[in-house]
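Write out this protein's structure.
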Amino acid sequence: MGRPREFDVDDALETAMELFWRKGYEGTSLTDLTEGMGITKPSLYGVFGNKEGLFLKALERYERTKMNFFHEALKEPKARDVAEKILRGFADSQTAETGPSGCLGINGALACSEAAAEIQKCLIENRQRGERDLGRRFERAAKEGDLPAGHEPYDLARYIMTISQGTAIQAASGADRPALYRVIDMALQFWPEAAVPQS
């Protein structure tokens, strides 16, 4: 039998996720990680491979635990409700009392050097995947008559994701949840309403 691991992998991953979320990928050093997780560098390399591997596992955990609202929102019957639940879900996650402010995906990708190009690429692809999923949902809404003609579903998805990225930066700069909600309320005032059929 091999020796038991000297640390709880799940707890260590939660700590790593919060460190990357708070400091970004490049701003988080190996020393930050090993001290925060309470492990040695050999243990980190043995379980996670390297810093990049650890970040990708932390990002996967973040998507699963902090971003689950996104795919739940896509199930809403009306496109406007989808948009509102996504925007408020982002704002709630970005201002949660129990975690860092802002967004791991945004914080992690800012100011990346060439050495972190693969991480930046992964984060960009992650955001683009979410935008595509939202675009497909709005495309369905257009076919169902839930969006008026002349509004490109994928442009609308980009609009919603741009607002969410803006609230992430505002949250990381100290904006609280009520302030973000006011921005979201203003953004939703521009939501295209489908014409009411004439009787």
